[in-house]
Write a structure and sequence with these properties.
The structure holds three protein chains of three kinds. By secondary structure, chain A is α/β, with parallel strands linked by helices. Chain A is about 30% helix and about 20% strand. Chain A has one domain: P-loop containing nucleotide triphosphate hydrolases (Rossmann fold). Chain A has an eight-stranded mixed β-sheet, sandwiched between helices. In chain A, α4 crosses α5. By secondary structure, chain B is mainly α. Chain B has one domain: Orthogonal Bundle (MetI-like fold), CATH 1.10.3720.10. Chain C is an alpha/beta fold. Chain C has an eight-stranded mixed β-sheet with strand order 6-7-8-3-9-10-12-11, with helices on both faces. A four-stranded antiparallel β-sheet of chain C has the order 2-1-4-5, with helices on one face. The longest helix of chain C is centred in the middle third of the chain and has 18 residues. Classes of the chains: A alpha/beta, B mainly alpha, C alpha/beta. Chains A and C meet through α6, α7 and α9 of A and α7, α8, α9, α10 and α11 of C.
Chain lengths: ~325, ~290, ~325
Amino acid sequence: MSALLEVHGLVKRFPAGGPVWRRRYVHAVRGVDLSIGRGRTLGLVGESGSGKTTLGRCILGLHRPDDGRVLFDGQDVAGMRGDRLAEFRRRVQPVFQDPYGSLDPRWTVGRSVQESLDAHRIGSAQDRLQRVRELFATVGLDPALTDRRPRTLSGGQRQRVGIAAALASEPELIVADEPVSALDVSVQAQIINLLQRLGRELGLAVLFISHDLGVVEQVSAEVAVMYLGRVVETGPTTAILRTPEHPYTRALVDAIPHPEPSRRLRHLPLAGEIPTPVEPPSGCAFHPRCPLAEPGCRLEVPELGPVGDHHLIACPVVARATTRPTTT
Amino acid sequence: MSVTGLPDVAPVAVRPPARRARRSLTTGLMLLGVLVLLALLAPLIAPHDPDTVDPNRVLGSPDGSYWLGADDFGRDVLSRTIFALRVSLLVAVSSVVVATVIAVPLGLVAGYFGGWVDTVVSRPLDMILVLPALLLALSLITILGPGSTVAALAIAVIYLPILARVMRASTLVTSRQDFVLAARARGAGHLATMVRHVLPNSVGPVAVQASVLTGFALQLEAALSFLGLGVQPPTPSLGGMLAEGRDVLGLAPWLEIVPGVAIALAVLSFLLIGDGLRRSLDPEGVAS
Amino acid sequence: MTSALILEDLRVSFPSAQGPVSAVDGVCLELRAGEVLGLVGESGCGKSTLANAAMGLLPESTEVSGTVRLGDRELTALDERSLRRIRGDEIAMVFQDPSTSLDPVWTVGDQVAESIRAHRDVSRREAKDIAVRLMQEVGIPSAEQRYADPPHRLSGGMQQRIVIAAALANDPVVLLADEPTTALDVTIQAQILRLLDDLRRRRGTAVLLITHDLGVVAQVCDRVAVMYAGQLVEVATTEHLFTSPAHPYTEALLRAIPGAGEPRSELAVIPGQVPDLAAPPTGCRFAPRCPFGTDVCATRPALVGDDEQGAVACWHPRNRRTEVTAS
């Protein structure tokens, strides 16, 4: 049985001006493979320019890939039309980051939650109202709030509305793009707990996009780390956090400010700036900042290779070192 | 992206701007209301027939019967002004309404789709924008002949690109919001998304611009009529009355003052409405 | 040990449709010379308001009472002109979003130079030289060339370095940093935090680091102050705060951070919501949500303690060796 979601060699770029003979592009995604099984959660981690948001949008079918494919339940998303497309839209739903921008300010929150039911003509009008009330209860909101406008609700409440709206059509896959980044720590905790619970109870598959590895570890057993449009490391979240293998992941993990004073500013921060995706460095995009860079890194784009149990990295230098017989 | 998250309570609404918005809006609306009422009820409330010529009263000063005096044909200035107001308001309002009705869909589509659609829509509009207003109006009138309908049409053409641009700019901002993407992801097609989400959230600035432009349209109509190219005599028009009063300014200044004041009041009312709309159009009203 | 900045009984309230909002409620805080003091709290707790009040940057309509002492001067008693002389010179501030802190039309170098010329009597040439040196000090590569760049040519991290350079241009005694790294990527944040730490050690600047991120606090701060709903609830050394927090709110906050406990188990949640500051609870403002709250909490507890254990404002403090008595 194929995985629920498969991404093969996805490439996506956006025009960024320049004269016709020297068009420039933002190379947001530069060849990504990943898969998510039914009911599984995959975390997608990266900083600015990593392409994680664009990847999420391609998976939602909101962008057409320039190369590669997104397969949902075995079918190519790009080719979907009419009924197939409508079905896809029912089965895959987004949750957005900004609880203030993701709800139409002029609609009542109840109507926003009802939107996919209306669009897909699910149930009668009565059924839909009932379903909205149920959804509110599921996400921990008082059903009496259905007639409110977003501006009268708090950030945490709005985010719950966003989640309820995503659940309306009983999807199988949720693409959550930074769903808790705009919330306070204590509210974050509530929403994270909610997402975990829903994932378990409803058997949802979740693609959890975030820049925060700590949050990702809370929610997903597996994670993929992206840098400048490509996946550089993927595998079990806890293993990656504990022993990151790829030099970028190592730097990322080191840079996370841990709430433990004993680990103060131990490591030297990664030097240099994140390159712009308009002009990604050749070969391995990380080579200008990488402490382990070799001359070959400039020339060849590294592929993902195994370095442990279900643990893959895109770094020939580290892969070679780990396969060499080590002396302890 | 700078987000620390806002307190997990609904934001406290800010009161003071709303008050000033209401003041402008209500003052403008009241003023306009009075003028519109006068205009609509013109045949009933005008004390005299605006076209009746009375050679005995030529250039007569204001008196018991002719409250604001008489013009060079002996016609009652007050009655003429009321009827002129009617015509001018009609031309100004209809021209802006027509322009808005066409501009909104154009701007919406250009801003939402971008790319070649935007180019195809915006370039011709830009070309119109480049031409000086009066020149454009004169050219149209030369081709189609003078008259109030042509004047309204010319004004509509002049203001169409401005309104379309405003709509386009507003649409650009709204289209980037997540809730638009959410609508598409929930299964709404492009048309449904544009009409139900993007349009209501983008149309505010257009309403403001349209109000202000109506004021300008009034002036433009007056200018055209002043030149004899808009509303044709003997139909009274505010611009026409200004033209007529020019020659006899020393003898009967009220012929110039009255229509001038009428124009000013009408324009003021539209500007006030526009200002009030602008102040009150922040849909969240949030102090963050 | 001298104090760089002392706040005593600082209160700030804003007018609103619902009546006056009490954003800062009687805060007493001491920033010691050369230290990094973290000021932590969730949004709406008043930490930014406090900093703005100290700098005199709040709008006319706000009511500010209490004292703000910089060295031997009382800032609340000064008029705008005198305040302007001190701002940027003896006390400086860095804000969260570098892209809006910098004027998009000026070159980055000129913005640093402006800071210098506002307070020192130097020629344009000299100011430029000093600015270039400052830019090098904050780690801008090829500072001479980049002097003439407009802000949009620089990345977020670089922009924030410029902002820091401008703030430290005149060697202020106190630097208020309001969420200086929140808008930056994690790896860049690490760089900027390290930079701030290096700079303050070299120059002896006292830094008030305002943040909602407890991880950042653990990395950089010597001491930490925790705020909730406008009140200061705890002050302690970083080590002590994280290992044995005294205030129930601090304790709950530490438990709510992902990564604190077992991965993928439920995070400890603080029940309830932040109070409405237009009608706050009397006494301790955390009491309604506090698992240990009792009737006595309706009377405001004072901030009591010592340097060793830290100070806490609570009738039922946790992890305390000795009982705190009402004073």
